[in-house]
Amino acid sequence: MLHLLYILSFTILAFIAIKTLIRNLVSFNFDREETHKQYNQGNYTYYSEGKSPAPHPELLDDSGNLIKEPLLVMRSIDVEDARQKLDAMYNDSSASTIENQEEI
């Protein structure tokens, strides 16, 4: 009898957890769509006004407009240059460990 009660209670808890998970996913999706629409329209408000949050300050320029260019630009190098740099770093580190071992 206790086994059935145990299985029933965990089944109920599982259904409650799944229901809550689905509800949170749906509400998160609606919030995300609403925020995306407001960012495209340029409506930036703060929490204190009861509307959606403002974008992060690092995404705004000095005048408060949203920055549209990429924030991280990486220089592309070819494989041979990368290998040469890694080999140079490896050779420098192995030479310094040999010197440290000789000093001891």
UniProtKB/TrEMBL annotation:
InterPro entries: Phage_Syn9_Gp224 (IPR021355)
Keywords assigned: Membrane, Transmembrane, Transmembrane helix
Superkingdom field: Bacteria
Membrane among keywords: yes
Residues that span the membrane, as ranges: 6-22
Protein's name according to its UniProt entry: DUF2973 domain-containing protein
Taxonomic lineage from the root: Bacteria, Bacillati, Cyanobacteriota, Cyanophyceae, Nostocales
